[in-house]
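=== Structure Prediction Worksheet ===
Name of assembly: unnamed complex
Input type: mixed (protein and possibly other molecules)
Chain count: two
Listed entries:
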Amino acid sequence: MSERDIIAATGVAAGYGKSVVWKDATFTIARGEFVGVLGPNGAGKSTLFRLLLGLSQPMGGALSVFGEKPKRGDQRIGYVPQRHSVDPEIVIEALEFVRLVACGGHWGFDLPMAVKQERAEALKALRDVGAEELAYRPLGSLSGGELQRVFLAQALSGNPELLLLDEPLANLDIRREGELVQLIKRVAETRGVTVLLIAHNINPLLPVLDRVMYVANNRIAIGEPSEVLNSESLSRLYDAPIEVLRDSRGRIAIVGAEEAVHHHE
Amino acid sequence: MSNPVFSLNLLTDFLGMWQYTFMQHAFEAGTMVAIIAGIIGYFVVLRRSSFAAHGLSHAGFTGAAGAVLFGLNPIFGLFAFTMGGALLMATLGKHAANRDVQIGVVLAFMLGLGVLFISLYKGYATEAYSLLFGEILGISMTDVWITLIAGILVLAVFAVLYRPLLFTSLDEQVAEAKGVPIFGIGLAFMLLIAAATSIAVQVVGVLLIFSLMVTPAAAAQLLARRPVHGILISVLIALLSTWFGLFVSFYLPYPVSFFITSATFLVYILVRAAKI
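=== Predicted Assembly ===
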């Protein structure tokens, strides 16, 4: 592991109980990298995040984040979990939701002085993602794209060095997908934050990605998009013939040559 | 009680009522109950754990019936069984969100036990009735003290838990990743519901517990965009409804709990209507 590396995995295996989700994962991720994490449902993409957050332990191998064993509650990590929706009845304003990260980790009641400062910081975090106008809107009234910007602001509000974003693009239309990806890229560059982003569709990420991590068939492949996302490399990963098709603008479709293993819209 | 007559002069009416020690007791205990129910209720609604509150109040019924059977003060049975029920429910169902089945299982067993206790106790009719529907007018000075002390303890624990409890209630996954002990917080909150339920049962009874633990908070949550404001509104609705119920029932020959439940329900309906 070099000085620049934020994450280092050597022969890591992950799973629950006795069932192994993936194994033999060896890779490093350097500071400031933007990595897209792809692969079919249930392949263990979120499991990887749980290991990095210290919420589960690897079944084998050595994993380190910031040069040490991952531990739960590391404030250097900003996390956006996979969320399907927010209860439309929740009228709590976005600003209070963003503030949770700053105040929720401490015992005790809200003291007026702290509240004032935390709200100012939360407002700044919302401003950084261009969502200042959402600050006082009820959470339940926000659209999918607006919610994702609020979640991003929440994840950024502790000034993290590493961002783990679990399917932030789900439920967004194509235009919103592109806008959110550009926003994440801009924020990450400005702050020098390393980003791991789980997605189903590689295409909106192609303009910003440094590397791709592909989780499938109990294994993890990592490399530049052109190295990983080609017929030969994916066929090796899946142990089955896979075709990677590219259109005139470089957009990618992944097709199983014998059966549809994974659908990219 | 000699027949009190309502004079339309609210001050005279209030002083007339205040002469009676049982009404003073009722107001003292009722005020503490409304404050606790309003606060804890806000989180019960936010965490969607109203079924837990329901289940725990039934466990309390059994505890109280058991205490009466053995000649003890019912409030001790209430506390013992709601606390025990809370621990059982929390251990059986690790995740608050899908605890429904475990709560149902515990609730059914508890009620069965309650039926046994009541059948063993000879003079059960009035005791059972007051447990089910509340009997704040029969509250003793000892009950008032127990209510006040338990209430202050609940407030103290709540004040310590407030911020992480809010975090886990609104955003459990991120709270967990940030190192908040979500299982411990969930367990502590179940115990808070148990304590709040135990003292609220005295006022509105087992079957009407929602009128103080859920309805005011549900109305408050439609109104407030900041949790702290929501809690204050919830307490205010519970408090005013309780005072209103006690005051009106002194002059009218109908049960207190009817007036309290009607008042909170009316507020909820008005808030809902105003939001449409």
